[in-house]
Structures are given as C-alpha cells and as structure tokens.
Amino acid sequence: MVLEDDGSPVVVTVNDSGECTGERTGGSTGDSAVRGSGRTTETGTGRTEVAIRASGITHRYGKNVALDSVEFELCRGEFMALLGPNGSGKTTLFSLLTRLLVADSGHIALFGHRIERAPANTLSRLGVVFQQPTLDLDLTVEQNLSYHGALQGLSKKEVRSRAGLELERLALGDRAHDRVRSLNGGHRRRVEVARALLHKPDLLLLDEASAGLDFATRTSLYEHVRALCDERNLAVLWTTHLVEELKLDDQTLVLRQGKIQASGTLASLANEYGAGNINQALSTLASGDSSP
Amino acid sequence: MRSAAFARGFLGILEREFLRFVQQRSRFFSALVRPMLWLVVFAAGFRAALGIAIIPPYETYITYEVYIVPGLVGIILLFNGMQSSLSMVYDREMGSMRVLLTSPLPRSFLLLSKLFAGAFVSLLQVYAFLVLARFFDVTPPWVGYLAVFPAALLGALMLGALGLLLSSLIRQLENFAGVMNFVVFPMFFLSSALYPLWKMREASEVIYYLCLWNPFTHAVELVRFALYGDFNSDAFLVTTGATVLLSVAAILGFDPGKGLLRKTAGRS
C-alpha cells in the first residue's frame, strides 16, 4: 500500500498476468509495496504492466553488504527517482537490473520475467543510460546509434529512421554525422538518451544521467524523460544524488547503506522528516535517522 | 530470438571494430612497424649468427628473414590479441563494455562475435605485413597466401580468446604492465617464433620443453606450414584445443554470476 500525493492510500495488487492495479481506498497505510508515481495513480484506478519487481534483493562484495533486502515495484507509465548519497548502493542496484551482476539472494523480474532466466525477453525491453560515458568517441553519432541498433537486432533501415526521429526530438538532428569527440558533455548525454530509446524500450533506467551537467541541461533532460512516461507509457527509474533536479510530486526511494530508508513523494518525505524542507529531510535520512 | 537479429548483431560488432581500426590509423602503422623492425634490423643482425638447417616445411636452405616471417605474423596476432584485451579493460573501466553486455543477444554470442571481429582486424594487418615482406625477399608461393588465411585466423582467435580471458581477470588498467611481463614476452620468446626448436634444445632441454608446451609455438608453426602450402596437424590440434579452452574460460569469466565481473563492479 502506498500513499497518494493527497494522502489517500492506494492498494497495490499484482494479478497473475503481471499487471499493476492501483485503486484509491481512503484507508490507512499498512504493509507497503513501494511504487512509482504516474498514470495509474493519477487516474485513481488503472491497470498496467509491472516493469520492475525487486523482491528481497541482497548483494555483497566480500563481507561488505551493498544491498540489503531491497524491495520495490515500478509499473509502466510511472516515474520513480532513486535518491541516495555516494556509496548507498544505487549503482549496484542498477548493475543488478541490467544483469551486469546477479544478486546473492532475492530476485528481479522485469515485465514478469526473472531477468536471469529470460535475459532476451527482459533486456530487449530495457533502455539504459549509464553513469559513465559509454559512447565511442572516435565514431560519429550515427555510427554509435547504428552499433547499438545492431546489438538490439534492428535493421539499418530501422536504425536510420528511428535515429533521425530521436535525435530530432533531442535537438541533435544536425549533429548525426559529427564525431562524438566534437560534442560537449550535454550533447553527449542527449545522444546517450537517444541511443537508449532507439529500440523503443518499455523501461528506461538512467544512472546519474545528469551528473556533471549544468542546471539548464539537467532540467531539459529531466523534462524530456518525464514527458516520455506519458507519451510512450514508459517506466522510468532515475537514479541521482541531486534532489534539486526532482519535482515535489516525484515518487522517490531513498537508499542509504544498501537499504531503502524511506519512500514516497518528495513532498511527503519533506513533511515527514524535515519540517517542509526536502534538503533537511534528506540530510536527516542520510544521517541514518529514519524515524519521522 | 530470430536469426536475423544474430546476424545484425555480429555484423554490427564487426563494423564497429573495423571503423575503430580505420579511425585509429596510428594503431595500424605501429602494428606494422613492430614486425618490420624485427625483419629489417633484428634479422639482419642475426642472419650471420644463426645458421638455419633444412627443416620442414622448407625444402632448401633459407635465410633467417624467411624463417622469422611466420613468427612475426605471430607477433602481430599476439599484440593484437593483447591490444584487444587492453581496450576491453579500458572499455570496462570507461563503461562502454556495458553497452555490449546489456544487449538481449546471448553473452557468449556477443563475446565470440567480438573475438571474430578482432581476428578480422588482425588478418588485415597480417596481409599488409606479408605484402611488405615481399620487398625483403620473403616470397612464399601464391597458394600460401590463401592457405595462411584459416591458419592465421585460428591463431588470431586463440590469442584473442587469451586476451578476452585476461580482460575478465584484470581489474585495473594499471595491471596491464604485468601482462606484458608475465604473459606476452615469455609467450613470444619461449616459442619457435625467433629460433627453431632444435636450436633451443641445443641450448637447454628445459627451455625446449617449455617452448614445446607453449600454444603460441603451435600457432606460429601452423602459419609457417600454411604459408608454404603445407599442413601441420599437431599444430592445428593444439591451436584448436587451446582456442576452445581459452574461449570457454573467457565466457565463464564474463558470466555475471560466476566471473570476476561480480567483484569489479563499483558501489555507489
């Protein structure tokens, strides 16, 4: 059960076909399933597919526990921010979601499929923007997109038409034949977003995608991604340590030392932990005090 | 997954390796300069010091330049395998390896495709070197140029698989110097690339057996025989076996549940 922005709880159930059902009940909160914010809850009642279901995820590096019993759900059309300081386990969670790592215990299902059992079914519906730059600097923008398209099984013709469209939307239509090395940091990030969207994924993961960008570029990137939730019924998990780039009604998971410390909209977190100031709330959470 | 998706994935990886190779012209020239220096300078100095007996596949006395050329083909393949390993460690540190590993195509297929793409780039350099070698009186029969293709391809795959395995084991780029000292140089010098094995045996029985057990020796011998239109079945079996073993080990090394990737991921 999760709270709506206005405080009314939404019972979250998942039926056998892997759909999320959000239904406004007006009751009190009980045991909670952490959910993203978006179309389902906004309309009061709705059904959509579960994009991510993480159940009891625990992962260790030697004796260090990187993630400890992490659970959450994200449905299509929803946006969720994963907020946490450096070392909180965000990138580890990201690596598990993209099958770069396999969890020591617990499991992750994307669109109803366990990721380690059906990598082809899950990864083909996943778009990823990594924290580190992953473009080939010596190749052109188009060649980078073409490489990604080939890895996703797209034909050259499909890549050309989709690349043109995505680059146009990100105001990079005239840079397709430029070497990536000649682009600035903001443009390179936008190329990575265009690349992640090239194969029309249903789930977009962005790991600190806005790191190192100026305020205006960060905002436009955020706005673009946020709009995709509605336009394409895309589920988005946006990992960041910068609370300034989020909006108050964004559903947020706060991760600290590998555990989910709190969840809810930024507004509700501010009310609960920081007397109306979200930065104060987060510093309270970061200090390890999760009691409201 | 449809077979067209596999074909597109393979061609995409091949195209990227080729484009990167074309873009990095200095890499191409340095890959040629290295064996040319050995052929022109080193071989000239050693010609007088080393006599070469008639050994298969040669049917007559040969110059040291003729003897050393298959070994220098081996050098090109060896350094390309290591270059590919180095760039994979770099890609992993820089993150671009993740683009490959998060593709829906099977990971083993992706890694083998990368292996073939690297081997293809190596072969371009091998042929460029063989053309240059003709100007220094190393003129194998024309059929040798055809026969050397599968032999050098197999050698390139074996050394590429070794590079792939090393890249799954090496945690940081800085550790690569150790690879040069403990893998590349011993592999090269403890082989038949520079001196025939009978000559090694005269010097030391131990070194002779080390050379004999070195799979690089067999890759060089496979190329040597192929270049003169001949086939060395022992060299073929050892090179094929080593290629299979190293490829399997490299694929296991990149398995997210078993390999070293699980220890190298960052925590943030």
Write the layout of secondary structure elements.
The complex is a heterodimer of chains A (292) and B (268).
Chain A: E1 2-3, E2 9-14, E3 19-24, E4 37-38, H1 39-42, E5 45-61, E6 64-75, E7 78-83, H2 90-97, E8 105-110, E9 113-114, H3 119-123, E10 126-129, H4 141-151, H5 156-169, H6 185-197, E11 203-207, H7 215-232, E12 235-240, E13 251-256, E14 259-265, H8 266-273, H9 278-286
Chain B: H1 3-23, H2 25-49, H3 64-94, H4 97-101, H5 107-134, H6 142-169, H7 176-189, H8 197-203, H9 205-213, H10 215-227, H11 233-253, H12 261-264
Short description:
The complex is a heterodimer of chains A (about 290) and B (about 270). With about 290 residues, chain A is an alpha/beta fold.
Features:
heterodimer, A: alpha/beta, seven-stranded mixed beta sheet, 14 strands, 31% helix, globular, B: 268 residues, mainly alpha
Shape of chain B: globular
The number of E-state strands of chain A comes to: 14
Class from helix and strand fractions of chain A:
alpha/beta
Order of helices and strands of chain B: HHHHHHHHHHHH
Q: How are helices and strands ordered from N to C of chain A?
A: EEEEHEEEHEEHEHHHEHEEEHH
Helical proportion of chain A? 25-40%
Q: What is the quaternary state of this protein?
A: heterodimer
Radius of gyration of chain B: 19 Å
What is the arithmetic mean of pLDDT of chain B?
Answer: 85
Number of helices of chain A: 9
- Approximate helicity band of chain B: over 70%
Query: Biggest protein-protein interface?
Result: A-B, 46 and 39 residues
Distance between the termini of chain B: 34 Å
Please, what is the average pLDDT of chain A?
80
Enumerate the spans of chain B where pLDDT stays under 50 for 5 or more consecutive residues: 263-268
β-strand percent of chain B reads: under 5%
Largest sheet properties of chain B: none
How many DSSP E strands of chain B? 0
Envelope shape of chain A: globular
Strand content range of chain A: 25-35%
